[in-house]
Design goal:
By secondary structure, the chain is of the alpha+beta class. 32% of the residues lie in helices and 24% in strands. Helix 1 packs across helix 10. The protein is globular. It starts with a strand and ends in a 6-residue tail after the last helix.
């Protein structure tokens, strides 16, 4: 008899709608691959979550995004009840979601990172915490939720964290000019590299999930040594965090000085999007792997933390 897979989706983070789209796509593909599939729109109630996962579930497919779904919380619940689940475990999920801590891990692994500062409301309101241009972002959200670039000549007021809904602190980071690329990792290998070209501005939430807002060049047109370096950094970041299953590492390629090209890691996403516009399925297709094969691989490699 085929495995029974329960897909966790929705939830209550800022990325709920993206998760619903990912979960629906994954459930459909798993059914097409021959699995018995149930879905659960995850409520903010631990008892209801445990009760909502059918007793005969063999594997949980974690299609949640954002807080609670990819920061180690749901992973801890699944570890307690002993159901194998896709993607990374508790610690790797928590580390990757905490951007400042993840950057310490990357730097220790020899992967270049952007200069940054953690600031509270008072410091942000007092003046620029870094030379412009710089990036302001929540330190524990995904999908570019809340990310803003502060440039020369911008009015400061809209970028104050006084009324910002992502906690009492923000992460301010050096803006890295150049090209944006992303590398999917599956297990211990890099699937490929995609260059992301937003239609305007930067690769924000709208550009990620609205058709026509960004062009994906897959495979990215990078010189082979640079492509190999980005893949190596992605695999090293995946391993340094302790990830398993699929992850996606995002980079900026600063080629403004041809004599000093930089490949700087921005973050690792341990729960990459699985929507029709998402990057990991796109790279899998380019590598000759169908969406059904991709989600099946994730299910067959699901684990609990020991």
């Amino acid at each position: 008899m085929s495995k029974h897979v329960t897909v966790l989706m929705g939830g209550f983070s800022a990325e709920r709608e993206v998760s619903l789209s990912s979960g629906a796509a994954c459930a459909k593909a798993l059914e097409a691959a021959g699995y018995r599939v149930a879905t659960l729109d995850v409520p903010r109630d631990v008892r209801a979550i445990v009760a909502g996962i059918p007793a005969d579930t063999d594997v949980v497919f974690n299609a949640l995004h954002g807080r609670f779904g990819e920061d180690g919380c749901i992973q801890g619940i699944l570890d307690i009840i002993g159901v194998p689940y896709t993607h990374s475990g508790r610690l790797a999920s928590a580390l990757a979601m905490d951007k400042p801590m993840a950057k310490h891990v990357f730097a220790a692994a020899g992967i270049p990172v952007a200069a940054d500062a953690l600031v509270d409301r008072e410091a942000m309101n007092a003046g620029d915490p870094l030379p412009r241009p710089y990036v302001v972002k929540p330190f524990n959200e995904g999908s570019s939720v809340g990310v803003t670039i502060v440039r020369h000549g911008d009015n400061r007021e809209p970028y104050s964290v006084q009324s910002w809904p992502y906690g009492s602190r923000a992460m301010v980071e050096e803006y890295i000019p150049g090209r944006e690329v992303t590398v999917a990792v599956l297990g211990d290998r890099a699937l490929g590299i995609t260059e992301i070209c937003p239609a305007q501005g930067f690769y924000d939430y709208a550009a990620k999930y609205t058709e026509g807002k960004a062009v994906h060049i897959c495979p990215a047109q990078l010189a082979e040594p640079l492509a190999a370096l980005a893949k190596d950094y992605a695999i090293r970041a995946h391993a340094a965090l302790g990830c398993r299953g699929a992850s996606r590492a995002d980079f900026r390629i600063d080629d403004s000085d041809p004599a000093r090209v930089r490949c700087v890691i921005l973050e690792v996403n341990t729960q990459p999007g699985m929507t029709p516009l998402s990057l990991v399925p796109e790279q899998a297709r380019a590598a000759g792997m169908s969406f059904e094969e991709l989600v099946s691989w994730m299910v067959e490699n699901a684990e609990c933390d020991s």
